[in-house]
Request: fold
Amino acid sequence: MFDRLKKAIGSLVDQISSKKISEADLDSLLWDFQMSLVECDVALPVAEEISNRIKERLVGSKVGLFEDLRPIVESELRAILKETLAYSDLFSLVGSKRPFVIMFVGVNGTGKTTTIAKVAKQLKDKGMSVVFACSDTYRAGSEEQIETHAGRLGLKVIKHKYGADPAAVAYDAVLHAKNNGVDVVLIDTAGRMQTDKDLMDELMKIHRVASPDLTVFVGDSLAGNDALQQATEFNKYVRIDGVILTKVDADAKGGSAISISSALRKPIFFLGVGQGYDDIVPFNPDWVIDNILAKQQRASD
Reply:
């Protein structure tokens, strides 16, 4: 009898000193966190989705009657962002076959060609042989740019005359690699707006002819919501396998990584952090998460 009474008293005390989290308890906090995500360049629909996932996880949970909910919400936000932000080691994928073909796509001005040179430098440092395919056959100076990188890195470029079929260049580069035992082919495609259907159809042709083992979207981390729209549209035409975000050193907030990962469900391979060949680092989800939570903390102080 004494044990039953003790248990009943304990249950009563627990009910008095605790409560279940309601939607009303979370609304103001979630709004603050959602705005912090948007201010860090997370697309609004993605921020709303994350907010709804936090609500689904926490509503109905039992907490102390006067317990501060902010650390609880922050913990759930961190967990959800960890689930959303995927990282994959690109180099662990290369070498499964020879040649291993990687095709790079993106809009104009993201630093795609320089990024390709950085990846080539990393591959060469790991003892792999690399050849460039200059499938950007229209932009003035494109061949000269990639040839400059190739000269500095001691690599070969496969190219045709300006105005040539970009798919034919990619095909010839893959054939060259097969005939010469080259480990990796890096295909540089012309930057193009995702709204230009003719150019996107051309991209599909290059993809079909080259049959790449990986297709990498190179996006500008400063582009915010535009980067998400670009990646989503490119993925409709050629399946994106992973992402490299550039210009992170120029005060990028990291939200583009969250938006793109959430939309594509694909990993971020690298972040570009400068113009040098070694200025490329493996993506670290904790960097993005800590940056956003620090922003939210400053806003709440």
